Amino acid sequence: MIGMLVTEETPQITQILQKAVQEIKRINPHARVEFVDYNDYYINKENEQNLKELIAKHRRGELKYCTLDDIIAETDAIIEGKI
């Protein structure tokens, strides 16, 4: 089962969640409870500008798709002095 709760963190909510986790663990010791701070996933202004530039280059056809094998081959060629 997957459950999700999105809320601002307050002392009351923290206390309620701690009690809920304890009860869940009592019922099922193998249960996993994970907490995620979604603020960590928001794009900051610096990254926003970089992403906008990448999108613009993609739309203009200026980006080249490379496989991992392509990158490894090019890296090997650079190391061997062929490039």
- Give the topology string: H per helix, E per strand: HHH
Structural class by helix and strand composition: mainly alpha
**Residue ranges: pLDDT <50 for 5 or more in a row?**
none
Largest sheet: none
Q: Would you report the number of β strands?
A: 0
Offer a few descriptive terms.
83 residues; 53% helix; mainly alpha
How would you describe this structure to a colleague?
The model has no long low-confidence stretch (mean pLDDT 85). The protein has helices spanning 11-27, 45-59, 68-79. It starts with 10 loop residues before the first helix and ends with a helix. The protein has 83 residues and is mainly alpha-helical. The protein contains three helices and no strands. The chain is elongated, with a radius of gyration of 23 Å. The chain has one domain. Helix content is 53%, strand content 0%.
